[in-house]
Amino acid sequence: MKIDIVSVFPEYFKALDVGLFGKAIERGLLDVSAHDLRDWTHDVHHSVDDTPVGGGAGMVMKPEVWAECLDDLLGLEPVEMADDGSETPDPPEADLSKPVLIFPNPSAPLFTQRDATELSRAGHLVFGCGRYEGYDARIPRYYRAQGVDVREYSIGDYVLNGGEVAVSVMLEAITRLMPGFMGNPDSIVEESYTGSNALLEHYQYTKPAVWRGMGVPDVLTSGDHGKVDRFRRDEAIAHTDRLRPDLIERLDCKALNKADRKTLMALGWEVSGPHPRKRAD
Ligand code: ADE
């Protein structure tokens, strides 16, 4: 996978050289370049931002500099548009053999494991890190109109100083799902948020079986794999019920087995409809 990252702090991405991500670069699974947006400026101050049209606090990243940079990375020629901003063009069909342009943005839909899974199959990702009060809204609009698959994602309901941290988060979530990235691919299969029956994960323990007087659940040392699996599944359901009931509401009842239903019913969920619903009492 080819990955281009554009930022006014490209040195931030040196941190990607460590751990499994660094190894994937070494092995040639990832080809990562972090670019300095200021390399595409022409003025003495290398300015990338300007005051907001219509007034207001802060600065907005200029479209001209971004477009020169993105045209280069995407191999596109500049096009003069007849667009007064009054219509929202339909997003192009997702085609992961073409580059995907991704802008982190706190005012965008949440980035989820589903997005990470989809993007792990892409051949070329281009990330644009905004700073200040964000980037000119015509940038994603322009590239969508050129047929580019442009995504804007928030990584959570909080505001960061810029998109760099958000890009690191997305990159880690995406690349670890690529075939050949993880030493043990089984470790991704059981994780929280994976698959249509996403639940939080059960607790994990390692040795010693007793530590500072604290034991582990007996069933885990019983050697009975069927019982261990059921115990973990029930624990996952119970954690999700307690911490993220919104995930239970999204489960597909048809994909639940009899034991799952029993556990959910004991926790106060109705499982007769398409998705579980908490009983009113
Ligand atoms: N830029 C600033 N805050 C952000 C967030 N929460 N998600 C993505 N990009 C951001």
Write the layout of secondary structure elements.
Blueprint: E1 2-7, H1 19-26, E2 31-36, E3 49-50, E4 60-61, H2 63-74, E5 100-104, H3 113-119, E6 124-128, H4 138-145, E7 149-153, H5 164-175, H6 186-189, H7 225-243, H8 245-249, H9 258-266, E8 269-270, E9 277-278
Parallel strand pairs: 1-2, 1-6, 5-6, 5-7
Antiparallel strand pairs: 3-4, 8-9
The structure holds adenine.
Adenine (ADE) binds next to loops.
Q: How would you describe this structure in keywords?
A:
Trp Operon Repressor, Chain A; two-stranded antiparallel ribbon; 5-stranded parallel sheet; 281 residues; binds adenine; elongated
What can be said about this structure in brief?
The protein is of the alpha/beta class. 30% of the residues lie in helices and 12% in strands. The chain has 2 domains: 2-186, SPOUT methyltransferase, trefoil knot domain (Alpha/beta knot), CATH 3.40.1280.10; 210-278, Trp Operon Repressor, Chain A (Orthogonal Bundle).
The portion of residues forming beta strands comes to 5-15%
Radius of gyration: 23 Å
What is the N-to-C order of secondary-structure elements (H for helix, E for strand)?
EHEEEHEHEHEHHHHHEE
- Rounded mean pLDDT is 94
Ligand names: adenine
Q: If you consult CATH, what is the topology of the largest domain?
A: Alpha/beta knot
Major sheet: 5 strands, parallel
- Dominant shape: elongated
The CATH architecture of the largest domain can be given as 3-Layer(aba) Sandwich
Write down the oligomeric state: single chain
Distance between the termini: 51 Å
CATH superfamily of the largest domain: SPOUT methyltransferase, trefoil knot domain
Helix-and-strand structural type: alpha/beta
Q: Number of DSSP strands?
A: 9
Number of domains: 2
Proportion of residues in helical segments: 25-40%
pLDDT below 50 for ≥5 consecutive residues: which ranges?
A: none
Please give the order of strands in the largest beta sheet: 2-1-6-5-7
CATH class of the largest domain: Alpha Beta
Number of helices: 9
